[in-house]
């Protein structure tokens, strides 16, 4: 547990602090648990110091009452720098998924001296690219008719609710058993799982420039079957960031890259983070 910018965030590390640091940034409402232990270990075995953390209102980090966040989107966007400061790390490779990818982009624009490289997973440009980038039809339908809130006092009901939500976002090869395992871990670790929805209530944190200002080497990993941000989002992102490279993950949806992709993803991230 580390004090970070007026909050206390739960942080976990893998590997040796002397190695180049990779900071993993989760998506909206998501704690660190989506970054599989084995994926973190594989990156650490490749000579990286891997860091993951719980956002505010997720996992074991500082939690506010549901519906009453005490922070802004700007706080979420700056927390990664606070984590690095607390660990004594001046510069790190950022790997962000979805909202975490948006945070990583913003940091690369506003704090380029802290960002060694970017790996952007299942995310969308945070500044305008001049392209029409709609949400996929399946997700539009899900947002139009969201499931009712679970009974937050019943852990098993919450587990099923979280796992079912993951299924909506994931690709055609969704691993239901893994989804349940991660959901159970989230419920077991979380101070209050209902508080994660506070993320939807905060605003702010827009970067002060554009993606054309990004100087960090950038790798875009995007699922070909992403129902939230269809592949066009990844293509637009790679086109907007100077020198960015796009790797398409077949059969992958809006999710942390599943184990079936690690033979591609792990070497790509290790190669990318070795170049800067």
Account of the protein in words:
Pfam families: Abhydrolase_1. Keywords: Hydrolase. There is one protein chain. The chain has 276 residues and is of the alpha/beta class. The chain has a single domain, classed as Alpha/Beta hydrolase fold, catalytic domain (Rossmann fold, 3-Layer(aba) Sandwich). It is built from eight helices and nine strands. It has helices at 37-45, 73-86, 99-110, 137-144, 155-169, 176-189, 231-240, 262-273, and strands at 2-4, 7-9, 11-14, 21-25, 49-53, 92-97, 115-121, 218-223, 245-249. The chain has a seven-stranded mixed sheet, sandwiched between helices. The longest helix is centred in the middle third of the chain and has 15 residues, at 155-169. It is globular. The two termini are 29 Å apart.
By oligomeric state, this entry counts as single chain
Low-pLDDT segments: none
- Count every helix, treating DSSP H or I runs of 4 or more residues as helices: 8
Mean pLDDT: 94
Structural classification: alpha/beta
- The domain count comes to 1
The strand order across the widest sheet is: 3-5-4-6-7-8-9
Written as H for each helix and E for each strand, in order along the chain, the element string is EEEEHEHEHEHHHEHEH
In CATH terms, the superfamily is: Alpha/Beta hydrolase fold, catalytic domain
What is the 3D form? globular
Strand percentage lies at 15-25%
Radius of gyration: 17 Å
At the first level of CATH, the class is Alpha Beta
Give the second-level CATH assignment, the architecture. Answer: 3-Layer(aba) Sandwich
Q: Which range best describes the helical content: under 10%, 10-25%, 25-40%, 40-55%, 55-70% or over 70%?
A: 25-40%
**Largest sheet properties:** 7 strands, mixed
Q: How far do the termini sit from each other?
A: 29 Å
CATH topology: Rossmann fold
